[in-house]
Amino acid sequence: MSYDTQPKASHFIDGAYVEDTSGTPIPVIYPATGKQIATVYAATPAIVDQALAAAHRAQKAWGAMTGTERGRILRRAADMMRERNHDLSVLETFDTGKPYQETIAVDATSGADALEYFGGLAGSLTGEHIQLGEDWVYTRREPLGVCVGIGAWNYPTQIACWKGAPALACGNAMVFKPSEMTPLCALKVAEILHEAGLPAGIYNVIQGFGEVGASLVTDPRVAKVSLTGSVPTGKKVYSAAAAQMKHVTMELGGKSPLLIFDDADLENAVGGAILGNFYSSGQVCSNGTRVFVQKGIKEAFLKRLSERLSTAVIGDPMDEATNFGPMVSEKQMKIVLDYIEKGENEGARRVTGGKRLERDGFYLQPTVFADVTDDMTIAREEIFGPVMAVLDFTTEDEAITRANATEFGLSAGVFTRDLSRAHRVIAALEAGSCFINSYNDAPVEAPFGGTKMSGVGRENSKAAINHYSELKSVYVRMGDVEAPF
Ligand code: NDP
């Protein structure tokens, strides 16, 4: 199989590919082999300025179009993404190392879902009329202007669309910066949007490291910043945005709890724990990495978990049978290995996995630790890799208290056959995106985002509209103005 993974140019600005090789070269590494498959160049200040100027210039006319016209373009782009799903999935696999079996099902398709959903909503965005006796107020839902999207490396196509689709539906322009580790996919999203009829300048992609992101955030032409990334980066970006009172959406990290009660359906609970820890080799922000298992079901749970993990097909991500791929980078693999070592040193019991695979690329075994206690590093810090921590609990109250004893609040899940308990426990858990007898579903129709240090705002669903538009209220007086003097 040979694919041309080198993009036409590093950036996509004002409706066209743009190259500027004077920026720092960014090697693109295929995680399954460790080999370089492309080179892009970080945006120079001139490229940053070019992208922001194009977005700023184009936005007013885009915002003045009807929502139906804007939506038609987004929905056309959604259809094109679905038609090109195979090629986009192959590229996503090269960019991230995630198995093609995953990317063909999840990445371009969920990006297309976002374009279709927000394309559909665009025509029905309205303000309201508020009658006040003879006088009245009306509200106008207006675009914010130029929005900046900054992405993490785990879902490059999806993140580019989850930010772009609502922004564009509301009449904004966007400058998107992917993670420098996965720079390829967002360029394809830009290309497709323009083929679908998007006016030049409305969706731009520029490459770069954190400093490029930082220069976008502080530019006065930018009205809003939406970041998907870690909590430390979120703090920096949020405070930089605050200096100019910009709008923000922060989709940050987590250490989410998954509570499995004695009465749970064992196979479903094990399946949920696998999905919530090992999909995308564990590189998912909402993962339920603290798996609290009630003592009565613990041994049966660990036994079935180990059995099912032993059937994971680890290998070439392009092979359709492979369902567990490498880590995104050598750096991330080393971070995870370091956590595994800490788990062992702090006394957790390794049930399975724990090693790097002896082959090219950045492969780790799916790893499970049991007898984990709340104070251990692997129970407190986000690992962002295939490492599950299993903690025991006895009572519901105890599990809730311990589950909430974290600075994070992205997700939470519960497995139980007791209907009342399921809803009671989920209501008590401090998290934004929750699951009952399931884990990690993220349909575009549902709000997605975190509480506490895991974030601010929501992506997807109608809720995202509020984060990409603002209301102007207009008071209309029908009679005379009464002034005191
Ligand atoms: P980082 O926080 O390291 O980076 C996120 C993005 O921010 C990258 O594009 C990065 O650029 C950029 N960046 C870094 N510093 C700055 C800065 N000072 N100003 C502006 N931009 C900056 O996250 P990772 O890419 O390592 O992704 C993993 C993290 O993302 C995990 O914590 C994970 O939980 C979280 N995540 C959250 C999701 C959610 O929806 N809640 C979804 C997916 C991931 P560069 O990479 O070039 O340094």
Terminal residue distance = 83 Å
Shape: globular
Could you name the ranges where pLDDT drops below 50 across 5 or more consecutive residues?
A: none
Range of helix content: 25-40%
Q: How many helix segments?
A: 15
Number of strands: 20
Rg measurement, Å = 23 Å
Spatial strand order of the main sheet:
14-15-16-13-12-17-18
Structural class: alpha/beta
Q: For the residues shown, what is the average pLDDT? A: 98
Query: Strand-residue fraction?
Result: 15-25%
Instruction: Describe the largest sheet.
Output: 7 strands, mixed
Bound molecules: NADPH dihydro-nicotinamide-adenine-dinucleotide phosphate
Give a topology summary.
Blueprint (H helix, E strand, L loop, with lengths): L10 E3 L2 E3 L6 E6 L4 E7 L3 H20 L2 H17 L1 H12 L3 H23 L6 E4 L2 E9 L2 E5 L5 H14 L3 E5 L7 H11 L7 E3 L4 H8 L4 E7 L2 H12 L4 E5 L5 E4 L5 H13 L11 E5 L3 H12 L20 H16 L3 E4 L14 E4 L6 H4 L6 E7 L2 H9 L6 E5 L3 H10 L4 E4 L18 E2 L6 H5 L1 E8 L9
Parallel strand pairs: 7-8, 7-10, 8-9, 10-11, 12-13, 12-17, 13-16, 15-16, 17-18
Antiparallel strand pairs: 1-2, 3-4, 5-6, 6-20, 11-19, 14-15
Helix pairs in contact: 2-4, 2-6, 3-4, 4-5, 5-6, 9-10
The protein binds NADPH dihydro-nicotinamide-adenine-dinucleotide phosphate.
The site of NADPH dihydro-nicotinamide-adenine-dinucleotide phosphate (NDP) has 30 residues, from helix 7, strand 10 and helix 8.
